[in-house]
Specification:
The complex is a heterodimer of chains A (308) and B (518). Chain A folds into 2 domains: 16-72, no CATH class; 93-302, Orthogonal Bundle (MetI-like fold), CATH 1.10.3720.10. In chain A, helix 5 (86-121) runs parallel beside helix 13 (270-298), helix 8 (170-199) packs across helix 10 (214-239) and helix 10 packs antiparallel against helix 13. Chain A is mainly α. Chain A has helices at 2-29, 33-38, 44-53, 60-72, 86-121, 126-140, 143-157, 170-199, 202-209, 214-239, 246-251, 257-266, 270-298, 300-303. Chain A contains 14 helices and no strands. Helices cover 32% and strands 22% of the residues of chain B. Chain B contains 19 helices and 18 strands. In chain B, the strands form 4 sheets. In chain B, strands 8-9-10-1-11-16-12-15-13-14 form a 10-stranded mixed β-sheet, with helices on both faces. A 4-stranded antiparallel β-sheet of chain B has the order 4-5-7-6, covered by helices on one side. Classes of the chains: A mainly alpha (308), B alpha+beta (518).
Chain lengths: 308, 518
Amino acid sequence: MLRFLTLRLVRAVLTIALVVTFAFVVLRLSGDPALLIMSVDAPPEAVAAFRKAWGLDEPLWQQYLSYFGAIASGDLGRSMRDGRDAIVLVGERIPATLALTVPALLIKLGLGIPAGVYAALHRNSWADRLVMFLAVAGFTVPSFVLGLLLVLVFAVQLGWLPSGGQDSWRHAVLPVITMGVGGAAVLARFTRSAMLEVLGQSYIRTASAKGVPWAQVVRGHALPNAAIPTVTIIGFMVGSLIAGAVVVESVFSWPGVGRLLVVAVANRDLAVVQCILLLVAATMVTANLVVDLLYGALDPRLRRGGSR
Amino acid sequence: MRLTRRAALASAVLATPALAQADQRPMLTVAVQKLSNSNTLETPREQSNVGFRLSPSYAEPLIGSDWQGDLSAVPGLATEWRRVDDRTVEFTLRDGVRFHDGRTMTAEDVVFSFTERLQGGPGHAVPPEIPAVAGRTFPGFERMEIVRPGVVRYVNRVPDVTLEGRLAQNIGVVLSQDAWGRSANWMEWARRPIGTGPYRVAEYRPDHSLVLEAHDDYWGGRPPARRIRFLEVAEVSSRVNGLFAGEFDFACDMPPDQVPVVERNARFEVLGAPINNIRLLAFDQTHPQLANPLVRRALSHAVDRQVIVETLWAGRTRIPKGLQLEYFNETFVTGWDVPAYDPAEARRLLRQANYRGEPIPYRLLNNYYTNQVANAQIMVEMWRAVGVNVVVEMKENFSQTVERGATRALHDWSSTSLFADPVSGLVRSLGPRGDMALAGEWQNAEFHALCGVLETSTDRAARRAAHRRMLEIAEREDPACMVLHQAANFTAKRRDIQWRAAKAWTMDFRASNLRFPA
């Protein structure tokens, strides 16, 4: 177990280092932060002063080494646009994003898994077809289209809910539904496929032939075995809790990490972008680690090092 | 009548809701695409279109601008001003002007606003770009001196006929010296500047919202709105939806194609007009295909600007008379115009230049400017019609479009004339210390020499002659850029609110320009 965890940890650190390096190179080679932050009409003297103040006039490799060294010592840098520590800026936005992504995750789980299971257990019925129709629709409609449609109906036409902003819990309803519906559709499709595969296995037939009640077969044999691919998808969803609402936050003017990321990338505010990427990578790696551990809990063969 | 302590307390408690009820002024919500590029409200740091929109609400310069009129100079924090000599302007300060912190503005505040605030001092270190920006706006600044209480003098190192124009810019707003001293650091100061404007900054949440509250001691009259909340709504469709849903009273930054969408709803209207910004296409004279001025002239003759204005802008903007605006008044060159649409002349120039269809790159941003991509596509086809092979390269940000390299030839650009003189646009953009010269895109020795005449000469006839010659060089002989059209700024709003759009980026919410339905 210790070897397993150590290996995962090393891989996680390497992944994060690669992510940071990639972001640094791409962002620094694709735009000058001084010009972007100081605006197009800024006098050249001001741009030069800005570059000097932030060390942007140093060779790229030197900037990279300085940045990496700082990260190693726990300093994620300061925002060139805001002047404050990047971690403080990002930290301020995390609650807003979680206020959307956590309820949306609950909707995804609460709707997607039962719908997928139900569709699989009633394969080829009208209910199955309806669930799959809705799942395909939810999966294929981009979130910004769905978001705007919801706004048109519930904010503009009916006037029941606000169209955007972050002033009360009512402002969160439409963005949460927008994110929840898409994710639920994905989960429903995966859950149905996994269940259908498991339901076709010989051990399900054997259990039924032995007279085990169908509900017990489903609960005791089908669901745990179908859980592995579903848990993988849920792992991705948990991993994207921090920055998984970029589009929805833009559509609904929700000041979360996603909006901050968009603005920071547009301004090449390197420290902020990399801070967010670090957090995203760390969340994703942690979620994957938990998923790996869950695999072992769900399937004893994986715990013993066997293959599936 | 004997006033007991209990009675006094009771009357105080009763008075509180009564006071709150007394203020029946409405609150406004304004949706904007962007609040501030720099996450600050300090004018030298936020020299942007979005900054120009907000700053007049909370801070004012000595010389104001006639926002609803021709942008000419009007009394601001100074009631009058006079030229002492070619280098000096004397200002009489308005009596009894109150800052948002309740203090009365003094001559010391004016001096502070031009010195310590812009240059830094023992109180606070200012970011290095602040003195640089200030240095460009007031390049000859020597000192601001107090003549006597209520009278100050701006002294320049060299003669400059544009001083009044420079002093009307928002970098020259007067802020409270006392508040500067109380701020913990520069960023805190820059996010809550204490000015004299009709509204004071109550809350600023970067990238989200700015709340302004009425400054009831405002010298220009009690502000008609109790509170104005600017909300950052990045998506235009979200701004329109919020307006229709009744959540916003104003929705800014409307592209022309949204104007009919909004106006189909009888409750709303779109206001706006051409502003003091000219959209340009910049030429890089160092690119092999553009080294010959004849090719640049051909590019300009090949574009039918009027068609673009009518189709993309529904006729809601105009083509300026070359690289100048009418509000330059005495320096405005009458009879001057942009090169005429003349495809035959364009073909003739291309033949004369021996141009044989070599590709000319056009670095294009995805609608940084309104209608930018559609405008570019139309122009590319117009150029193709006369035999010019322009190849579009999409770029992500402005720094990529001006980056030196073999593919830098054409890119979009704009020039804002912040005060009524060609120095504010032409010299700033094309002069020897201007953007194009420093980027290594365009230089012309005669033009650069004439910039000196415009900047320092006090002979008005000589300045006008220099301006005419500069237009000839920059638009005809050795084109630096081609004028496309005047930029226009559109704001959607509730029809029942009386408000007029400025001929600039500014939004004016003073009592003189805002009235609510009874």
